Structures are given as C-alpha cells and as structure tokens.
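wait is this the right file?? whatever heres the structure
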C-alpha cells in the first residue's frame, strides 16, 4: 500500500514538472531583453574584467622586470 502511494505521488510530481517544462519552452526572449543582456555582459567585460586582466598583466611584467 505504501509503495503504491509513493508511485502515485511521484507520478503527480512528474506531471507537474512536465507542465512547468512546457510553459518554460513556450516562453521566448524578446529581442530587447536579449540586446540588453548582451550589452550588460559587454559592459561588464569592458569595465570589470578588462582592467582586472590588464592589472594582473602589468603586475607580472613589473615583477619580471625587477627579476632581471
């Protein structure tokens, strides 16, 4: 009896997850949102990641020049 109840509960959960998956697949990203996310990613790279990489590179070059 207990095993059958667990199977029924799991079937209900699977059905719920399948419905959520169908809804998720139907959603489309608007071009404006896609453009905004791309622009935000580009700005993050230019403002945060670029200077960080440049600083690390400059530090390595500076340390190498002192070693000579």
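ok assuming it is, sequence goes like this
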């Amino acid at each position: 009896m207990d095993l059958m109840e667990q199977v029924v509960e799991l079937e209900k959960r699977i059905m719920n997850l399948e419905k959520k998956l169908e809804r998720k697949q139907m959603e489309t990203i608007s071009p404006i949102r896609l453009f905004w996310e791309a622009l935000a990613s580009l700005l993050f790279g230019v403002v945060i990641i670029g200077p960080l990489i440049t600083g690390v590179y400059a530090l390595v070059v500076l340390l190498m020049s002192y070693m000579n």
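The helical segments are 2-26, 31-67. so i think its the right one actually
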